[in-house]
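TEACHING EXERCISE
Course module: macromolecular assemblies
Task: Read the component lines below, then compare them to the predicted structure of the full complex.
Student: A.B.
Group: 4
Components provided:
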Amino acid sequence: MLKVTKFGGSSMADAGQYRKVRDILMSDKERRVAIVSAAGKRFSADHKITDLLYLCHAHTQYGVACDPVFNMITSRYLEIRDELGLKLDLESDFAALKARLDKKEVSQDEMASRGEYYSAKLMAAYLDFQFVDAIEWVFFNIDGTVNKEESYAALRSKAAGKGIVTPGFYGKMPDGAIRTFSRGGSDITGALAAAALDAGVYENWTDVSGILMADPRIVENPQPIPEITYDELREMAYAGANVLHEGAIFPVREKDIPLNIRNTNDPVHPGTMIRSHFETETDPHRIITGITGKKDFSIITVFKRGLTSQVGILRRILSVLERHGISVEFVPNGIDNVSLVIPTATVAPHLYSILADIQQELSPDNIVVQDQISIVTAVGHRMAFRPGVSGQIFAALGQAGVNIRMINQGPDELNIIFGVKNEDFAQAIRVLYNSFVK
Ligand code: ASP
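Instructor-supplied answer key:
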């Protein structure tokens, strides 16, 4: 079975991290393909190489010398090379890049891509794997989407035999220009490689032991999630959890390749396994998979007697929002009222105009706007069709004195969503975590 591995910026930050990556790859012969990020932060006040590359490029665009920043970038890579005792001529590469940069011949995307490029060069030399440049196999269409068929075929032809290292984050446009994905895009490259090679697993190595059940800034030492389905992950990401972006997992999800999030600094930890579904579950008693949420929503509630029995009323209300280009997140309703739950940042600039339009469109009995609302989401496929879960959630919140402003559950019962005041947000998450996990 082939394992495709992707190492994020913190795993590539210095020579010490390179050694860990090497140990991880050498400990398992099936790990024959590695996708690498640019060097990330070594400590919290440090800089990510990709940020410095953008910064350097911006300088030259405005005709400001970027030598100090350029030197910060190159010295990071030279330091890694020298500490690992590698004989790789990076100096001529750097000089050529700098010369073209000074002549404004380097595009922003090309400049940003160099972090991954140098990481991959160094790592390939260190592992004695083959270096395969991303422009040799990640092909973009003119509209910026990836031409999967050709990209997959190209990688397949390159990856036979010896192990390979390839840079994440960028590829080639039809005219030969370098193009990057959006920030964090090496995850996409990794997923594409795993899909291209029909890997048995896509290992995404980072600096945490998997996806956590709750935000560690809110819950102390939250447990990692051992197993999560792609659908649950989507819910978690949508509801605010900082996990892999959908676009980054689509290629592997499409081919039903499991994705395993692992920790370079704790390689024996199994991390989080993500799949479409699990035949057997390690922990079938775990009812809630994860708890997440977002702050700062507004609820606009429209009151009108007999409202829900009128044909087309919802459409008329929603068309007001549509005219303002605003998407509504939830629409809970009562017999004589309907509420629109919308992020405050999107609705606030248009609020008075929206209220005026609703007034004109419906002549409601009353309209009430509440701000400072947080949405909390409990995600878990095991909650589905199991009586008593919401009872347990709301009982726990009730005991903690947290008032619930809104409740929403989709018919697939994959999640339970509720609204609380912003000031109760953290407590609501802690209460849920404690009552289901502890
Ligand atoms: N280095 C790029 C970034 O910082 C891409 C990545 O690391 O995934 O966004």
